[in-house]
Amino acid sequence: MTCALEPSITDSSPLRYPGINRHLRRYLKALIPSLQACLTQSAQSCGAERYRKHFDSFAHFILLLFHSLSGSPSLRQTYATFSICPGLIALSGLDPPPRGAGPGISFSEFAHSNSSRPYEFLLGLIPSLSHQVLAQKPHSSLPKELLVLDSTFLPLSMALASWLPRAQKKSGEGVRVQVEYSPALDLPEHFLITDSRTNDCQGLDELVLDQPAELARLRGQTLVVDLGYYSHRRYLTLLDSGIHLVSRLNEQAHYELEEELPHQENLFCLPGERVRVLSDALITLGSPNNRAGALIPNLRLVQAEVWRGRDEPLLYQIITDRWDLPASEVVLLYLYRWGIELFFRWLKSHIKLDRLLGYSPNAVTLSVILALVVHLICLLAGMETNYGGRSAALLRQLALLLTLLDLSHPPPMPRQLVLPGWEEALC
After folding, report:
1. Residues 38-89: pLDDT tens digits?
2. Could you say which DSSP state residue 185 is in?
3. pTM of the entire structure?
4. What is the per-residue pLDDT across 376-414, written as a single tens digit (0 to 9) for each?
5. Do strands 146-155 and 222-225 pair parallel, antiparallel, or not at all (unpaired)?
6. What is the pLDDT of residue 98?
7. What is the mean pLDDT of residues 261-269?
8. What is the rounded distance in angstroms from the CA atom of residue 69 to the CA atom of residue 80?
């Protein structure tokens, strides 16, 4: 993607790049300025503009967005390349000094701002962009009420991030990002950043169970979790709050079989996958002798064999309280959990989530927020054009268009073609 950042693209005329989607160009020119009001409001609420008269939050956002989309391996290269984009310099207000060629701030000020400016100034963009995604009403065959909770790990060096707690293994030094994700909308609805001392179960407490407002918001929805969140007591809290649950059964978990239920045994086919339901039963999960656990009555246990591109099937034991679905669809609800794994791969491989803006707690959090903001912008841009959603090709288009962005020259108005007899028809 660095080919779009060579000094040879100083001419911002879109006519030199016939492959650019003009609809996407118009949308980007309208979207970026519209975010300024939201950034200004969130920056004022967290005091992000204090002692920064020449480098406000909107200019900081433009530089960060340019850094993320350009794919530059370092902030220094982003700073150097930004100086050859006059449209972005004019948009951000970072006019170069009278005898200088770069933006009107130093590189050290840009790098230091990632740690000193509160990350909340950028966090205010996520609700605004998420509401725009919801307003688009994207079409999807996945259930709208389905949510997936999972986490991804970002490794950090203790030599650079001394504020982290020391882990027993060197590979365990870093932060964990818990994300509540909607596969139907491709939308991260809630997230939490913790250090290595917080496991997934504790992350579930901080993200959902200890938040009454979040519990009320999730009422009636279906939450899919993996074995990392397995806890009978926490599952019972979710069910008592009116949140449906789908999870795998721990191999060491105790349960009482109450009733065998009839089920459909024929194969249920998916692209590249096959599912065969083996049993469907009513169970009581948990042991009455375990004082630290909890008993969960009237729970459903579905056992199925799943072929995922292998010769040998994998045995899945799924527990849920969804009695309104066929057994095969219960298995599918859990298989939809793989959407969040693809989402994490998208953030790390294409948006470069692991390319951090710094090693302070504020800079690490700002890196995660920036990756989510870029994902939402890419998602909205895909809905507005014929891309249909996020894609690597769309990111490359956005990177090039941001480099060529120039709000001082509005796009030309469409011209009427002169056809035979057209002038006479107007008389």
Report:
1. 999 999 999 988 877 788 999 999 999 999 998 888 999 999 888 888 888 8
2. T
3. 0.87
4. 999 998 888 777 778 888 888 888 888 887 766 554 444
5. parallel
6. 58
7. 70
8. 15
Tokens describing residue 251 = 């191999």
| Nearest CA-CA partner of 10 in 404, 407, 401 | 404
Strand-strand pairing, 222-225 and 244-248: parallel
Please name the residues in contact with 88: beta carbons below 8 A apart, sequence gap of 6 or more: 62, 66, 82, 402, 403, 405
Q: Where are the alpha helices (DSSP H) in 248-354?
A: 327-335, 338-349
Q: What residue spans of 247-360 are helical by DSSP H?
A: 327-335, 338-349
- Which H or E run contains 204? helix 200-204
CA distances to 119, 229, 272 from 87, in Å? 26, 48, 47
- What's the Rg (C-alpha) of the chain? 26
SS3 of residue 293 by DSSP: coil
**Helix/strand/coil for 79:** helix
pLDDT tens track for 212-252: 999 999 999 999 999 999 999 999 999 999 999 999 999 99
Total Cβ atoms within 10 A of residue 267:
12
The three-class DSSP label of residue 87 is helix
Q: CA separation (Å) from 121 to 3, 111, 115, 369, 370?
A: 31, 16, 12, 10, 11
How far the first Cα of the chain sits from its last, in Å, is 53
| E strands in 31-161 | 146-155
Give the SS3 label for residue 181: strand
By percentage, how much of the chain surpasses pLDDT 70?
A: 84
DSSP E strands, 92-221: 146-155, 174-182, 187-195
3-state secondary structure of 56: coil
